[in-house]
Amino acid sequence: MTTFDDRERAFETKFARDEEMAFRVTARRNKLLGQWAANLMKLTPEEAEAYSRAVIQAEFEEAGDEDVVRKLLGDLTAAGVEVDDAMVRKAIEEQAIEARRQLMESK
C-alpha cells in the first residue's frame, strides 16, 4: 500500500506544481500584455506599470481570458488605437509564449 500512497502523493505534488506554474505564466503573460498595450497607448513608464497591474487584476474578474480581452480592447479603443479582437488575441498567444519562456529561463 505504501507504493500506492507514494504515487498518489507524487501525482498530487505534480498537480499542485503544474497549477502554480500555470498561474505564474498567466500573471506574467498579463503583465507583458499590459506593457504591450501601454506601449501602443504611449503611456509613461509609471503609467505603464500601473496599467500592467490593472491587466493582471482584470484576470480575476471571471474565468478565462474574456475579461482581459474586453479590458484591452476597451482601453486601446478609448485611447484611439486601431485594434481589433483578432489583434488582441494574437498578442495574448504571443505573450503567453514569451511568459513561459521567461519563467523557464529563470529556473
Description:
The mean pLDDT is 92. The protein is elongated. It has one domain: Major Prion Protein. Helix 1 packs across helix 2 and helix 1 crosses helix 4. It is mostly helical and 107 residues long. The chain is built from four helices and no strands.
N- to C-terminal separation?
A: 35 Å
| Fourth-level CATH superfamily | Domain of unknown function DUF1476
Bin the helical content: over 70%
Low-confidence stretches: none
What is the molecular shape? elongated
Number of H/I helices: 4
The helix/strand class is mainly alpha
Number of domains: 1
| CATH topology label | Major Prion Protein
InterPro entries: ATPase_inh_sub_z (IPR009945), ATPase_inh_sub_z_sf (IPR038293)
Protein name: DUF1476 domain-containing protein
Organism: Sphingomonas panacisoli
What is the fold's blueprint, element by element?
Layout lengths: L1 H39 L4 H14 L7 H13 L6 H22 L1
Helix pairs in contact: 1-2, 1-4
Task: Tag the structure with descriptive keywords.
elongated; 107 residues; ATPase_inh_sub_z_sf; ATPase_inh_sub_z; mainly alpha; DUF1476 domain-containing protein; 4 helices; Major Prion Protein
Provide a brief overview of the structure.
The chain is mainly alpha-helical and 107 residues long. Helix content is 82%, strand content 0%. This is DUF1476 domain-containing protein.
